Amino acid sequence: MIYSFEKTDPAKGRFVELLKTNGVDYELIDHDRSVVRVLGDVASKVGEKLGEVYEGRRRITIKSAGATEVYDEFAHRKAPVIIAGPCSVESEEQIRSVAHFLKSNGIRFIRGGAYKPRTSPESFQGMGEPGLRIIAKYAREADLRVISEVMDRSQIDTLCEYADVVQVGSRNMFNYTLLTALGSIDKPVLLKRGMAATVEEWLKAAEYIVRGGNSSIILCERGIRTFEPSTRNTLDIAAIHLAKRLSGFPVIADPSHAAGRSDIVVPLAVAALASGADGAMVEIHPQPDTALSDRNQALSFDEFERFLGRLREIGLY
Ligand code: PEP
Ligand code: MN
């Protein structure tokens, strides 16, 4: 794992001291910033303490002002970051309507998959590049940033052309060649937790991207598989806070894929945000009943507005 500090940051000394006294192997590289490369596994030894010393610092290796500015919206957020949009990009009309709706509610980020990892090969697989073109076009019109999923290395260049944040889905969290390749892009990466991944495995997956050179990572807890059949997954709020402490990265919640049903998406989102998650990503659709993917969990526009109202009521937004 790589940690970077301003050269004059007093936390750097405390951080290195902790490594030394606990016998953790590391390298210290002093250039414009001080970079500490921790070698091997520290979670069991001092992971939590390191996270505390490092808290609030950012790890940025990507260069362009645009990408840094997008990442700062998460890393230096004033209020939780709300991301909303359909599971899949389906048509111009659908995205136009979602984009204008979000803008009218002051939302800054739109989501929408063009390459869809579907459990069944017979399900809608997404519109591909034409879908990305559509979401980028209406996002520009409504001054929104785009988040969309990459499923394969061959799609990275296309994603980078149209999206502001590149999403790695739950099914790909263990795809190490994809993660390594995302280390060399100039875009923040939204790394979802694998549906059966431990926190440690999730953070190790992030490390693959960091080692590739890209430290602009946003983690997303989207629910894990448990024995409970009445929800699609179980939202693991503890993991949000462990991941934040241990990594220092911003961590958001995806209550939609956790719940799998629209009736409890809002309380899950509120719980995650009230506990200190850095944001929430919620699936919405102009007509949820007609959605081509994940229709049971999509909020209608009215439901989403009530969600924002609830956040305002409790001072979270
Ligand atoms: C999605 O965000 O639409 C998605 C496929 O999510 P996950 O990878 O969490 O299942
Ligand atoms: Mn979905």
Description:
38% of the residues lie in helices and 15% in strands. With 317 residues, the protein is of the alpha/beta class. The protein has two domains: 2-54, Alpha-Beta Plaits (2-Layer Sandwich), CATH 3.30.70; 65-313, TIM Barrel (Alpha-Beta Barrel), CATH 3.20.20.70. Helix 4 packs parallel to helix 5. It is globular, with a radius of gyration of 19 Å. The protein binds phosphoenolpyruvate and manganese (II) ion. The site of phosphoenolpyruvate has 10 residues, from loops.
- Main pleated-sheet profile: 8 strands, parallel, barrel
Under CATH at level 1, the class of the largest domain stands as Alpha Beta
Attached small molecules: phosphoenolpyruvate, manganese (II) ion
- Percent helix, as a range, is 25-40%
How many runs of DSSP E, i.e. beta strands? 11
Mean pLDDT: 92
End-to-end CA span: 33 Å
Judging by the overall fold, what is the CATH architecture of the largest domain? Alpha-Beta Barrel
The radius of gyration is: 19 Å
Q: Which spans of ≥5 residues are poorly predicted at pLDDT below 50?
A: none
User: How many structural domains does the protein architecture include?
Assistant: 2
CATH superfamily of the largest domain: Aldolase class I
Number of helices: 12
CATH fold label of the largest domain:
TIM Barrel
Strand residue percentage: 15-25%
Which terms summarize this structure?
TIM Barrel; binds phosphoenolpyruvate; alpha/beta; 3-stranded antiparallel β-sheet; 8-stranded parallel β-barrel; 317 residues
